[in-house]
Amino acid sequence: MAGRFALTGGMKSGLALSDLRTGRRWRLGRPSRVGGGVDQAAVAADGKLIALSFSDPTWQGGGTQVTDVWLLNPLTRRFQHLPDMPAAVSLKFTSFAWASGKELVMLAETAQHDVVATWRPGQRQLQLRRVRLPERNSGSDSFVVWSAR
Asked: Contact 84/115 with Cβ under 8 angstroms?
């Protein structure tokens, strides 16, 4: 849900965007060439962007796991590719969320290390920072963005 819009779909049915006020529905093309389905979706607080990740646990038939994040503007029904995507990550330890409605924050485990990646609309690339996370002992990849003000 992004304001008055609902994004629905799956691997077989494809993506669709519905305007809950008017009842209109649009089929959306699949923007990513990464196989697999939609892995995660997160709506910015202002509802102007929906981040969608398309993920593949066996990219091109190999052992590399890949995620590919796209941004959907529900008003224009257009996709924008998040810079520096697709990315090779450990899918079970990768997730993203919007902070303050204006910054997309991704926590990811790569082959070398854990990183926090941030992106604001208009930036040409992700801002990356290496982090050291405690060892994870559950199957969850969820996190909460919190900042003290």
From this structure: no
